[in-house]
Hints:
This protein is an alpha+beta fold. The chain has one domain (3-47). The chain has helices spanning 2-18, 43-47, and strands at residues 22-25, 32-35. It has a two-stranded antiparallel ribbon. It is rod-shaped. It comes from Mixta tenebrionis.
Amino acid sequence: xxxxxxxxxxxxxxxxxxxxxxxxxxxxxxxxxxxxxxxxxxxxxxxxxxxxxxx
Length: 55
């Protein structure tokens, strides 16, 4: 029973994180960056790797 609870919690965590991921392209559509939870806190966005992004 304890093992089933651990598997259920792990599945819930993976489902939550996979639902919050995505990609954002820059205005020229020649570069994109991936984010885990929110586009504003992506490392690539913070360092400006792709330049300005389109909304």
